[in-house]
TrEMBL record:
Ketoreductase domain mapped to chain residues: 11-194
Name the UniProt record assigns to this protein: SDR family NAD(P)-dependent oxidoreductase
Domain of life: Bacteria
Stated family: Belongs to the short-chain dehydrogenases/reductases (SDR) family.
Protein's organism: Actinoallomurus liliacearum
Length: 235
């Protein structure tokens, strides 16, 4: 174990949408770092199967981030966590534009990505503040920044939802400043998942960077938008 990993070894981490893609890769990376991982998914069986794949000690819980009862139930079952990775998300409006996108798609996108993440934060961050230690990573996206400083207009609801998440991370960081809790938004770069099937890099490529953001030392950043630099042609 490196000195860096020792910061969080033995801590408990909860990852949303951990049954596939980036969430699964991050859960596996945290598990590898001797963190007690709680794999959550909206389908209980998916969560159980992924936790079993990770190995002994990994726990599973059903957690649909859009369902207040599900979030409450998961918070009660799991108890306080030290690390929260808000990863679950949807991309529903790719290939549209702001003037013609069906607003039902935007509404659903905001319901999952923004409000769902916000709901999970409301459930799991206050106990971190009370306990005086916490690391929160909100998975954002380059659609908020990488298009000449503008939002990516060809997935307008998605881009606005991720921009909202950057704002949420900044506000949570401000509210928790000095409490021992660090909150950051992370841009994972483009990765080959169900959401982005044609990308060259698998999610495992970004998992160490995201896990680093979830295990920052006490003097680490808060309220940041952290982007991994994978070099020229970063995919
Ligand atoms: N892939 C990329 O290039 C990329 C780039 C930037 C940001 N991101 C972000 O990274 C995150 C993970 O995306 P991914 O690429 O790994 O996509 P993915 O393979 O489609 O995984 C999305 C995950 O979110 C879960 N989810 C969706 N709605 C949920 C809900 N209501 N409650 C709980 N879980 C829910 C999915 O569960 P089910 O399996 O049940 O559907 C799945 O586990 C997303 O926030 C995405 O916006 C991805």
């Amino acid at each position: 174990m490196t000195e860096k990993d020792a910061v969080a070894a033995g801590r408990t981490a909860l990852v949303t949408g951990a049954n596939r893609g980036i969430g699964r890769a991050v859960a596996a990376e945290l598990y590898r770092r001797d963190i007690r991982v709680v794999v959550t998914a909206r389908n209980a069986e998916d969560a159980r199967a992924t936790a079993a794949d990770l190995g002994p000690g990994a726990r599973a819980a059903r957690l649909d981030i859009t369902d207040p009862d599900s979030v409450k139930e998961a918070a009660e079952r799991v108890g306080p966590v030290d690390i929260l990775v808000c990863n679950a998300g949807v991309l529903l409006d790719a290939g549209t534009d702001p003037l013609s996108v069906p607003l039902e798609l935007v509404e659903e996108t905001l319901r999952v990505n923004l409000l769902g993440t916000w709901r999970v934060a409301q459930a799991f961050v206050p106990p971190m503040v009370r306990r005086g230690w916490g690391r929160v990573v909100i998975i954002s996206s380059g659609t908020t920044t990488e298009f000449g400083g503008r939002l990516f207009a060809a997935a307008p609801g998605y881009s606005v939802s991720k921009s909202g998440l950057n704002g949420l991370a900044a506000m949570l960081a401000e509210q928790t400043a000095g409490s021992g809790v660090l909150v950051n938004a992370v841009n994972p770069g483009r990765l080959r998942t169900r959401m982005m099937p044609n990308q060259p890099n698998p999610p495992e490529v970004a998992a160490p960077f995201i896990a680093d953001a979830a295990t920052l030392p006490a003097d680490g950043p808060t309220g940041g938008f952290l982007t991994e630099k994978r070099g020229p042609g970063r995919a």
